[in-house]
Amino acid sequence: EIGRKKGRGEDPADERRSVAEVIDRLQSNETRRSALLHEIETLVAGVPNLPHASVPHGRNAEDNVEIKRWGTPRAFDFPVRDHVDLGEALLGMDFEAGARISGARFSVLAGDVARLHRALAQFMLDAHGREHGYTEMYVPYLVNPHSVFGTGQLPKFEEDLFHVPLADGSRYYLIPTAEVPVTNLVRDRLLDGDALPLRYVCHSPCFRSEAGSYGRDTRGMIRQHQFDKVELVWIEHPERSWEALETLTSHAEAILERLDLPYRRVLLCRGDMGFAAAKTYDLEVWLPAQSAWREISSCSNFQDFQSRRLRTRYKSAAGKNALVHTLNGSGLAVGRTLVAILENYQRADGRIGVPEALRPYLGGMTELKPPR
Questions:
Q1: Considering 115, 179, 336, 343, which one is annotated as catalytic?
Q2: Tens of pLDDT along 189-214?
Q3: Which residue from 39, 128, 139, 145 has the fewest beta carbons nearer than 10 Å?
Q4: Domain residues for 191?
Q5: pTM for this model (two decimals)
Q6: Among this protein's residues, is 298 annotated catalytic?
Q7: Structural domain tally of the chain?
Q8: Which residue is catalytic, options 115, 208, 265, 309?
Q9: Strands 292-303 and 279-287
Q10: Which secondary-structure segment (H or E) carries 15?
Q11: Which of 107, 298, 307, 330 is the catalytic position?
Q12: Active site includes 216?
């Protein structure tokens, strides 16, 4: 109409105003649409995964179900000392230095205790890489927000994360577990279904604020802001992911058995399970000084919860694209394994026996001895 009026020499001012009003309405509607989409995405991002039918009902750890036990806790004929007393007597743990350098929930390891800590990580990597068929990875310890969103830590658990703000207003996050960067290796990828599963192992430091843990485990290495962990990650075909969870968990158990550390497997109830998991087994090691089972590994199947956020798919033999399933587990937490060895292998005179599996990594050393 504007063109016709111009052709007749008439002023199309009314039509121009109408067009401008339509454009304004479209822009306003698009702004509102974007705001609504953001609101919906924020709400959806706060919805946890659905538990698998085999996960028991319950509110907290008291409702978890013990599945199995392995090994017998040792009966000591002398007063049991905890890992703090043992480590300090070996001149291998210095919590005062950790607090002086950084603050609460940090520690310094030295001498043979530091060597034992390193040997544990090397042993775990070798066992999973050479014996269990995982591909070893080295990954960044700082990740972008897209990565922590993809694995489910953001936006709900931001207070549990350490972050590094940048001058341009963006930020990095220190990884709470190697699960984050390793699982993000397949973000936005279409994988060959015949190549599944992909199995990765990664040793890394982990950084957690422990925001909800005030007053808990304040003594020693059980709950630290910085700790090492060897992580196992599977990218699996949906039809095989439940079998994969059993296999992955058995690989973590194999480390405890090789170290001859008594443990139990516990199936977490719905109220104690993590935000992103569909089913989780915890492995709990026996700590004599606490007379308690303490978590040393957590193994989970997330089904397609993470892959949906990560947009990770596979192409089936029929040529169709579908979401993969992701799984991960600790294989194991290195610091807590160190704690378990110090306490379970202690002797009356303060010496610590070295598990046979670790001796090749320590030059044949059979025990840690306090200085005279």
A1: 336
A2: 999 999 999 999 999 999 999 866 66
A3: 39
A4: 52-368
A5: 0.91
A6: yes
A7: 2
A8: 208
A9: antiparallel
A10: helix 13-45
A11: 298
A12: no
Q: How far apart are CA 178 and CA 136, in angstroms?
A: 12
Q: Are residues 199 and 130 in contact, defined by beta-carbon separation less than 8 angstroms?
A: no
- Same domain assignment for residues 29 and 150: no
Q: In which residue are the tokens 């001498």 written? A: 111
160 and 238 part of one domain: yes
Joined together, the tokens standing for residue 165 give 């703000």
Verify that 79 and 30 share a domain, yes or no.
no
Residues 57, 27 share a domain? no
Q: Choosing from 295, 308, 347, 351, which is the catalytic residue? A: 295
- Catalytic-residue membership of 291: no
Judgement on whether residues 171 and 39 belong to the same structural domain of the protein:
no
Length of the chain: 372
Residues 10 and 157 in one domain: no
pLDDT tens across 265-276, in order? Answer: 999 999 999 999
Query: Is 336 noted as a catalytic residue in this protein?
Result: yes
Coil/strand/helix, residue 90: coil
Per the residue annotation, which of 118, 223, 240, 347 is the catalytic one?
Answer: 223
68 & 6 share domain: no
CATH code, domain carrying 325: 3.30.930.10
